[in-house]
Amino acid sequence: MPVGDDVLIDEHLRRLAGRLRGPRRLRADLLTEARHGLLDAVEAYRDGGLSAHEAARRAVTDFGTPEQLAPAYQAELAVAALRGLSLRILAFAAAAALAGDLTWRGSSWSDGPPPPAGYLLLSQSVDWIWAAAFLLGAAGLALVTATARSSRPVFTAVAHAVGALLTVAAVLGAFTGVALFGWSIVLWDAALSWPPMIVGMLAGGAAHVWLGRAARTWLLATR
Asked: Are the CB atoms for 143 and 158 separated by under 8 Å?
């Protein structure tokens, strides 16, 4: 097809792309697939005797307007965003459960007097938050599978609710985690020079940014 006739298709896809939010890779793949479908339609119309320009116009018309197409594409992007958020929550919660105690094991203050009751409650709250987040992440993956098999509105509604709860859990986990590390430093000066503590703070900070990006993608995809 002449390059000039690609403009009509490319402009149509740019308008569609402007309405879509979600995981970048899937978004690009969906648009590429749509472009290939349009080019195939143009080729079929040209084989039927239409001019290149008329074939491109007919293919775009048959394809549908961005307003008509965006909801279906956006629904697929939202499901993918929930899958990504759920997987990251599961990975973070599992890693936190396995590595959390290692941060403190063998520290110079571990044999000293116990910390205040409030500190212990905050520490337990962090564990509870991520335990709940792990279960929600598993539920999110189950809903992704259910949504792929059925278009029932109830699955979509529940998936949105789980995604919102996962986002809240990620925010709460970040705030309580920062509070716990901060309180630890206040209680034990040696915490600032304890290697596992330093590694834990750096790794935890990077992981929370990683989670935050997934949560932001999900929020944009379902907005």
From this structure: yes
